[in-house]
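Recap from last week: sequence in, structure out.
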Amino acid sequence: MNTREISLAALMAALYAALVVVLAPVSFGPVQLRVADCIIPLSAVLGWPAVVGVSLGAFIGNAYFFLGPVDVILGSVANLLAAFIIFRLRNRLLHACITGSFAIGLIVGGYLWIYFPPPYIGVMVPAWMAMIVSITLSSLVAIAIVGYLLVNALLVAGLSKTLRSMGLKTHL
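Predicted C-alpha coordinates:
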Protein backbone atom coordinates (compact mmCIF):
# COMPACT_ATOMS: atom_id res chain seq x y z
CA MET A 1 0.00 0.00 0.00
CA ASN A 2 1.26 3.47 -0.82
CA THR A 3 0.98 6.60 1.32
CA ARG A 4 -2.44 7.59 -0.06
CA GLU A 5 -3.86 4.14 0.60
CA ILE A 6 -2.45 4.11 4.13
CA SER A 7 -4.00 7.53 4.72
CA LEU A 8 -7.33 6.29 3.37
CA ALA A 9 -7.17 3.24 5.66
CA ALA A 10 -6.48 5.54 8.63
CA LEU A 11 -9.39 7.77 7.63
CA MET A 12 -11.72 4.77 7.38
CA ALA A 13 -10.55 3.50 10.78
CA ALA A 14 -11.10 6.91 12.35
CA LEU A 15 -14.55 7.28 10.78
CA TYR A 16 -15.63 3.81 11.87
CA ALA A 17 -14.32 4.24 15.43
CA ALA A 18 -15.87 7.72 15.73
CA LEU A 19 -19.27 6.44 14.63
CA VAL A 20 -19.07 3.59 17.14
CA VAL A 21 -18.10 5.91 20.00
CA VAL A 22 -20.53 8.73 19.19
CA LEU A 23 -23.43 6.34 18.69
CA ALA A 24 -22.41 4.12 21.63
CA PRO A 25 -25.80 3.50 23.16
CA VAL A 26 -26.99 1.75 20.00
CA SER A 27 -23.59 0.34 18.96
CA PHE A 28 -23.29 -2.14 21.83
CA GLY A 29 -25.40 -4.66 23.63
CA PRO A 30 -27.49 -7.71 22.89
CA VAL A 31 -29.80 -5.71 20.64
CA GLN A 32 -27.76 -3.22 18.69
CA LEU A 33 -27.63 -1.30 15.48
CA ARG A 34 -24.01 -0.57 14.70
CA VAL A 35 -24.49 2.34 12.30
CA ALA A 36 -20.73 2.38 11.65
CA ASP A 37 -21.17 -0.91 9.78
CA CYS A 38 -22.81 1.02 6.94
CA ILE A 39 -19.33 2.02 5.74
CA ILE A 40 -18.14 -1.59 5.41
CA PRO A 41 -19.59 -1.84 1.86
CA LEU A 42 -17.23 0.95 0.81
CA SER A 43 -14.71 -1.90 0.60
CA ALA A 44 -16.26 -2.73 -2.76
CA VAL A 45 -15.12 0.64 -4.11
CA LEU A 46 -12.02 1.43 -2.07
CA GLY A 47 -10.52 -2.06 -1.77
CA TRP A 48 -7.84 -2.95 0.76
CA PRO A 49 -7.64 0.46 2.46
CA ALA A 50 -11.31 0.13 3.45
CA VAL A 51 -10.93 -3.54 4.44
CA VAL A 52 -8.04 -2.67 6.74
CA GLY A 53 -9.67 0.57 7.93
CA VAL A 54 -13.00 -0.87 9.08
CA SER A 55 -11.17 -3.72 10.81
CA LEU A 56 -8.86 -1.35 12.66
CA GLY A 57 -11.82 0.93 13.42
CA ALA A 58 -13.69 -1.98 15.01
CA PHE A 59 -10.62 -2.80 17.08
CA ILE A 60 -10.41 0.81 18.31
CA GLY A 61 -14.14 1.16 18.96
CA ASN A 62 -14.41 -2.16 20.77
CA ALA A 63 -11.28 -1.42 22.80
CA TYR A 64 -12.73 1.96 23.83
CA PHE A 65 -15.86 0.29 25.26
CA PHE A 66 -13.91 -2.74 26.41
CA LEU A 67 -16.27 -5.67 27.02
CA GLY A 68 -13.35 -8.06 26.93
CA PRO A 69 -10.50 -9.27 24.74
CA VAL A 70 -12.76 -11.69 22.87
CA ASP A 71 -14.94 -8.79 21.69
CA VAL A 72 -11.99 -6.62 20.69
CA ILE A 73 -10.32 -9.38 18.67
CA LEU A 74 -13.28 -11.27 17.21
CA GLY A 75 -15.23 -8.09 16.45
CA SER A 76 -12.28 -6.89 14.38
CA VAL A 77 -11.98 -10.27 12.67
CA ALA A 78 -15.71 -10.18 11.86
CA ASN A 79 -15.30 -6.78 10.19
CA LEU A 80 -12.21 -7.97 8.35
CA LEU A 81 -14.06 -10.99 6.99
CA ALA A 82 -17.20 -9.03 6.07
CA ALA A 83 -15.21 -6.30 4.32
CA PHE A 84 -13.10 -8.88 2.48
CA ILE A 85 -16.22 -10.75 1.33
CA ILE A 86 -17.76 -7.51 0.07
CA PHE A 87 -14.53 -6.57 -1.71
CA ARG A 88 -14.22 -9.98 -3.38
CA LEU A 89 -17.91 -10.19 -4.39
CA ARG A 90 -18.16 -6.50 -5.34
CA ASN A 91 -19.57 -7.21 -8.80
CA ARG A 92 -22.72 -8.53 -7.08
CA LEU A 93 -22.86 -5.87 -4.39
CA LEU A 94 -26.19 -6.67 -2.78
CA HIS A 95 -25.29 -10.36 -2.51
CA ALA A 96 -21.90 -9.35 -1.09
CA CYS A 97 -23.50 -7.09 1.53
CA ILE A 98 -25.93 -9.79 2.62
CA THR A 99 -23.14 -12.37 2.87
CA GLY A 100 -20.95 -9.95 4.85
CA SER A 101 -23.86 -9.30 7.23
CA PHE A 102 -24.19 -13.01 7.93
CA ALA A 103 -20.46 -13.27 8.62
CA ILE A 104 -20.73 -10.56 11.28
CA GLY A 105 -23.92 -12.04 12.70
CA LEU A 106 -22.40 -15.49 13.09
CA ILE A 107 -19.08 -14.35 14.52
CA VAL A 108 -20.24 -11.55 16.82
CA GLY A 109 -23.50 -13.24 17.76
CA GLY A 110 -21.56 -16.42 18.40
CA TYR A 111 -19.64 -14.87 21.29
CA LEU A 112 -21.56 -11.77 22.40
CA TRP A 113 -24.06 -13.80 24.44
CA ILE A 114 -21.21 -14.46 26.88
CA TYR A 115 -21.28 -10.80 27.90
CA PHE A 116 -25.07 -10.48 28.08
CA PRO A 117 -26.60 -13.40 29.98
CA PRO A 118 -30.12 -14.55 29.02
CA PRO A 119 -32.90 -13.75 28.92
CA TYR A 120 -32.86 -10.43 27.13
CA ILE A 121 -35.88 -11.18 24.99
CA GLY A 122 -39.08 -12.95 25.98
CA VAL A 123 -38.55 -15.89 23.63
CA MET A 124 -37.44 -19.27 24.91
CA VAL A 125 -34.49 -20.01 22.62
CA PRO A 126 -30.85 -20.62 23.49
CA ALA A 127 -29.03 -17.36 24.26
CA TRP A 128 -26.40 -17.92 21.58
CA MET A 129 -29.07 -18.48 18.91
CA ALA A 130 -31.04 -15.39 19.92
CA MET A 131 -27.84 -13.32 19.84
CA ILE A 132 -26.84 -14.59 16.38
CA VAL A 133 -30.30 -13.75 15.03
CA SER A 134 -30.27 -10.31 16.68
CA ILE A 135 -26.81 -9.33 15.44
CA THR A 136 -27.46 -10.73 11.95
CA LEU A 137 -30.67 -8.73 11.62
CA SER A 138 -28.99 -5.52 12.76
CA SER A 139 -26.08 -6.15 10.39
CA LEU A 140 -28.49 -6.70 7.52
CA VAL A 141 -30.04 -3.29 8.22
CA ALA A 142 -26.70 -1.48 8.57
CA ILE A 143 -24.77 -3.22 5.78
CA ALA A 144 -27.21 -4.71 3.27
CA ILE A 145 -29.68 -1.83 3.34
CA VAL A 146 -28.02 1.40 4.52
CA GLY A 147 -24.49 0.53 3.34
CA TYR A 148 -25.68 -0.78 -0.02
CA LEU A 149 -27.74 2.37 -0.62
CA LEU A 150 -24.81 4.56 0.52
CA VAL A 151 -22.39 2.96 -1.95
CA ASN A 152 -24.87 3.24 -4.81
CA ALA A 153 -25.60 6.89 -4.01
CA LEU A 154 -21.88 7.70 -3.87
CA LEU A 155 -21.24 5.91 -7.17
CA VAL A 156 -24.06 7.82 -8.85
CA ALA A 157 -22.60 11.05 -7.44
CA GLY A 158 -19.25 10.26 -9.10
CA LEU A 159 -17.22 8.92 -6.19
CA SER A 160 -15.03 6.68 -8.35
CA LYS A 161 -14.11 9.49 -10.73
CA THR A 162 -13.33 11.85 -7.84
CA LEU A 163 -11.15 9.31 -6.08
CA ARG A 164 -9.26 8.46 -9.27
CA SER A 165 -8.61 12.18 -9.85
CA MET A 166 -6.93 12.17 -6.41
CA GLY A 167 -4.68 9.32 -7.41
CA LEU A 168 -6.57 6.61 -5.54
CA LYS A 169 -7.43 3.24 -7.02
CA THR A 170 -11.12 2.31 -7.19
CA HIS A 171 -12.68 -1.07 -7.88
CA LEU A 172 -16.21 -0.20 -9.07
